[in-house]
Amino acid sequence: MPQCSLPIEAVTMAEFGELMNVLGEFGPYQKLVVLFTSLPQFLLPFQMIGQEFMVLDVPHHCDTSWIRAVGPNLTEEEQLNLTLPRDAAGAYEQCSMYSPVDWDLDSIRTYGLNATEKCRSGWVYPPGQPPSLLTEFDLVCDRKDLNDISQSIYMAGLLLGSIILGTLSDRIGRRPAFLISICLYGLFGLGAAFAPHLYVYIAFRCVVGAAVSGILITALTLGTEWVGASSRPKAVLLSHCLSALGQMALAGVSYGIRNWRLLEIAGSAPMLALLFYIWVLPESARWLVTKGRIEEAKKVLQKAASFNKCTIPPELLEQLKGLKQTKSGSILDLFQNKHLRKVTLIMSLTWFADSLVYYGLSLSVSSFGLDVYLTQLAFGAVELPARLSCIFLLEWFGRKKTQAVLLLLSGLMCLIIAGIPQDQTVAITVLAIIGKFTATASFSSSYVYIAELLPTIIRQTGAGLCSMSARIAGIMAPLIRLLGEFHQAIPMAVFGSPPVVVGLLCFLLPETRGNQLADSTGEATPKPRSNKLEVLPKKGTTEDGVDLEKDVYQSSENKL
User: Fold this and answer.
1) Could you tell me which CATH number the domain at 8-57+136-508 has?
2) Positions of CATH 1.20.1250.20 in the chain
3) 73's torsion region: left (phi>0), alpha (psi -120 to 50) or beta?
4) Residues 110-133: pLDDT tens digits?
5) Predicted structure pTM score
6) Any residues with CB less than 8 A from the CB of 306 and at least 6 apart, and which?
């Protein structure tokens, strides 16, 4: 078996990142890790936006069966004519009825009913309608806002997941946090499918939201810490492509499965099949070293080297013992260091703006005027090139420019939509698809960017904090849609304004393209790679125990 291609002398006093470079930037083992962290993301769209297909509007009217007590032989049309008022277009009102009276049928026919009130005894839906959240829990009329409120509570679950699972991952490890998230997603997703009451469904969905957040940010960190600098965007964004494929699959599955409970099962049960990760998913070797768990790190690295068909010299592994355990970081470290404070604040705003415009467009899929399933298919299809193009954009133009410009464009698309008449459905849908493209690409860029800006000991905590900011925007997005009752342009104007402002702030961030990952807060400022040779003193002893020093020429381009 060949040895890995870095000379021992070059890493004698090197950082852990240089030892990782021995394994290769993106070898077979790293690709397998990225695959493991990517597979769960295929199912995430079923929870993120799947509810939009469970509450599609259907015809309905108030239940006026009270009149059957005095007119049991009335036809359905006669019953509706006598008990329901009509709107300006001549159609039956959906949310009001004539107030019941104690008259006989002849009096009702002769004098008619005039006083109206809201639906008293529920609603009637077309016969043969597949069970949906809307029909089963009466999410119509005064209760229709419960749909957006339940989406906001789901987003609150994402926020809780960012707080709890993000911090937990830095404490107990990336692997256990990822496994916990997968388990919660599968179990509570199935629980939501069998919920007997709307509020039980909402509570279960809140937990699922926390699990989704845990999967996203832990997959980001675990994948990033196993991959070299030049391949980080590729690794992160290829995993996001699974989410794009999941959105396309959602359009087809939701079209074929109209029963909301079966659709919920289809989007949740497969996650439990991934519990075999308990035996195959590795821990981040970089995290193990920062925690002083050197022996475990050595075993993981040796396994990775074996899978990559190379060997790490024993002398090289022994040097891990000389690396001191890095002091655990906390959320306070993000604000005590001047550089980290600026990065954290701007990236938190960036994630907020990304999330606001992304979910603002995604959750509005049913309001653009075209077929909801075709629109969702287009939304999913456009995400695939959006995420793939980021791989090249981030390398060609750098992280800073790519992040700023994409965020600006996504906001501008929403502002343009706000100014277009609502009857221009094709134009609105095309602009929404362009906006979804840029919003998706911007969101993907922010995942790569934050992973490179923060040091290892607080990378997950910092990503969790940014994710919290994104989840606050996610909570707000469904509620902002309610402003459309006052004017149809208001929601899109609100979705589009923050990305434009924050996009300009992104130009204040440092560039991280090609930089090595920092491990501690003392190394927080990005370190660019250089081709210059550095002379590093190496201390050792002869066989007689006499101290010696010799110069070791080390190329810093070997650093991650």
Assistant:
1) 1.20.1250.20
2) 8-57+136-508
3) alpha
4) 888 888 889 888 898 988 888 888
5) 0.73
6) 1
